[in-house]
Amino acid sequence: MWGISQLLAAALICLLVWQFLKLRWASRELPPGPIPLPLIGSVWRLDLKFNQETFTKLAKSYGKIFTMWLGHRPMIVLNGFDAVKEALVTNSEDMTGRPMTPFVDDTMKGKGILFATGHIWKQQRRFSLMVLRNLGMGRKGLEYRIQQEAWHLIDFFSNEKGKPMSPSFPIFYSVSNVISAVVFGHRFSYDDEKFKEMIMGVDFMFHFMPSPFRIAYDLFPSLMRLLPGSHKKAIFCVEVGHKFIREEIRSHEKTRDPIDPQDFIDYYLEQIEKTKDDPISTFDYENLVHVTTDFFAAGTETTSVTLLWALLYMVAYPDIQEKIHKELQDVLPPFHKICYEDRKRLPYTNAVIHEVQRIANVLLVGSFRECQKDITLQGFHIKKGSIIIPDVASVLYDPEHWETPRQFNPNHFLDKDGNFFCKEAFMPFGVGHRICLGERLAKTELFIFFTSLMQTFKFQFPEGAKVNIEPKVGGLAMVPQPYNICAIPY
Ligand code: HEM
């Protein structure tokens, strides 16, 4: 006679076998990929240290389009320029969904832009782009704010008097202050504790989103909601950010002039007022909180980390740093205030910034999409609702499009006469209808911050310190190892 534990074990084995067969059956219609196992899917096939090579290695075994299972949910990975372009450019309209996972659902609730889909996404995105343009994105107004912030950053660096310092805090602060100027209409001083807490929260989320705790939350949400762990801290960070933004909104309500909106929140509050009787309007307080959060979440870490990489590459390649200094000296008059237009007469500096973005590839695999219709990709039938992972790293390092894909080489963006040019395979901001909403703002920030710093300082490592350009591994983000640097007045 079998005991209760043997019966339970037999039932469990039957259940696992049944699940395994179900997964095999479901895999039949999908692109090939590692065999999915019950509960964990094909996560077992990922390297413990996930990096920009992981998917490319799998593509060598399974092809340019393959299936990875997260638990019992299939995800289609696209590798290389042709596959990513076919999905995000040729089928752009059908690729505008963002997959909802338990963690995203619990924290973002399908609101805002970054994690929204369908009508909410369309309305919020279109309106936000319009307001950003009104506020001067791509024009002088916003550029002036960035120049001011660059000046604060230079001041911070100058005060260190060439001593070793960590550039990460002042850079994060300056970049966050640009977003603050856009959405709140003002900047925060370096010692504002509440603002600091919010920035730290954004930083924490950037590292948490691709972490094992986040994956565990999405696989076993009911269990994880009960357990302690970094997911609890992540939820707390989101709440802190929302609280901070709600306070700003309340103070705007008291002071705003409806005829003369000054910042994003002013415009949005006016839009809520204007559309309050429209039954299909999605303009409300909650969406305002989430859109504002999205600007900070999507716009601060990405830009700051790119700048951190840029300074690190300058130290790693002193000859390239010297060439930039020479170009700036030859072209710009003394005490010239850098503006975005200057990029046209500084092709080498512009090429270096693009090359930093290409090689640093701060969002390791790009952002996930959800198919809105049945489509055909690379000859495979992909069903509506499928999750798509465009492996942007594989495009930025695609050997068919870059001469020395793994090597830092500004010539990737220069023609034989030294003129700047950009390739289609340069897509750190994504492509298609969901391309980064802040692309123009980010490009202006990167150019003005980086060029202003290079105009003022020569960067080098403290004596005896070794340059390490290996990224910190452990998530889907490519972040440099923490470092100290000396900013020597130039
Ligand atoms: C170097 C800096 C930046 C990089 C590399 C970057 C990259 C990206 C990428 C890859 C996406 C996803 C696109 C896709 O789904 O295919 C994205 C989305 C987004 N970015 Fe950026 N971004 C940067 C800066 C900014 C800034 C400064 C803002 C501020 C407004 C911003 C706001 C957004 C928003 C709101 C989205 C969501 C767009 C949507 O889902 O429709 N980003 N970004």
From TrEMBL:
Keywords: Heme, Iron, Membrane, Metal-binding, Monooxygenase, Oxidoreductase. PROSITE patterns: CYTOCHROME_P450. One of its GO terms (biological process) is xenobiotic metabolic process. It comes from the Eukaryota. Heme binds at residue 436. It holds the Pfam family p450. Signal peptide: none annotated. One of its GO terms (molecular function) is oxidoreductase activity, acting on paired donors, with incorporation or reduction of molecular oxygen, reduced flavin or flavoprotein as one donor, and incorporation of one atom of oxygen. GO terms for cellular component: cytoplasm; membrane. It is found in: Membrane. Its cofactor is heme. Belongs to the cytochrome P450 family. This is Cytochrome P450 2J6-like.
